[in-house]
Amino acid sequence: MTPHTSGRQPVHHGNAQPTPADDRTGRTGVWFVGARGSVATTAVAGCAAVTAGLHPPTGMVTEIPPFADAGLPPLDTLVFGGHDTADCPLPKRAEDLTAAGVLPTGLARAVHAELAAADEEIRPGGPLPGDLRTDEELIDRFTDDLAGFRTRHALARVVVVHVASTEPLPDPDAPRLPASALYAAAALRAGCPHVNFTPSTGLLAPALAEAVAAGAVPHAGRDGKTGQTLLRSVLAPMFVQRALAVRAWSGTNLLGGGDGATLADPAAAAAKNAGKERVLADTLGPGVEGTVHIDDVPALGEWKTAWDHVAFDGFLGSRMILQTVWQGCDSALAAPLVLDLARFVARAHEAGLTGPRPELGFYFKDPDGGPAALAEQFDALLAFASRLRDGAR
């Protein structure tokens, strides 16, 4: 292996070319970055459970009637794989999530074969501590992994979905690309659509700008909207529409599990909070006081509590307060959404669409343009489904 030299190296398109899509198979690959994490494990187990008729598709927007005939790939045609730096097998990870109350009792055993098959397709991620490979070498490795997955299963296409732990905001002078950008560069090089469900950099790395502009694939991001920000995107327009003046909007998140540990790092928390605050700024404008504070509470395990305190003025300056509490399991909230996004982006790729997809802003805190209010975002999603239904070209 060649040691990495000082100074960030440019990211080239490279010689790797995407394998021609074989649409005759009718199967779509979903390649999770962070494939052994809670979200990916829940998504794989959930997809198998819904396909087998063991559970209804609760939380999957793509399974409600307006999207039934948009040509989205059926759940039973999805094939899973991914990258991860962890080595806990998916069946064991699913057992751990059962013990934590995320997966229902008996599900891990019922879908063991599907979990084991997906685990066979997980490849080592990186860079790991002490990894001497350059950015370019890592991108080549990840690109080869994607191409091999597509070839082994004769897949029509592979969608890369980033669900790994949140990275700190990148240092512009850092000699290396963030890991999320390495995976995103590999997706572009392999001709794979890309979804960034995290606040991490991904395709937004300046070094990837040329490759993103030249890449003929659809992509969507970033940072999935699963709880607190989902509620904010509904409530903030209400204050505007009722002409109520919001003076301050503060929030607290109590998190356990891997998210809590990751976001205990102030730099990672800052990356996460940027998307949460954007919803309010886009809807209410600048000048609203308040921030979001994140606490790591390991005893909560896979669960989280999000509390918001909204101070606003009513008629004749009367002071009023709204408080909300959201308690839930983030991986169970996120898993159906990443399955939705993989299906939408795969269909967009099949229909010949490329570039950022603002129509999918319904799913994100920091979307690729479009409206900030959830109702308007859902209208855009419905219009997108109509476009896909009509062929999109």
TrEMBL record:
Residues 227-331 form the Myo-inositol-1-phosphate synthase GAPDH-like domain. Residues 1-28 are annotated as: Disordered. InterPro entries: Myo-inos-1-P_Synthase, Myo-inos-1-P_Synthase_GAPDH, NAD(P)-bd_dom_sf. Belongs to the myo-inositol 1-phosphate synthase family. This is Inositol-3-phosphate synthase.
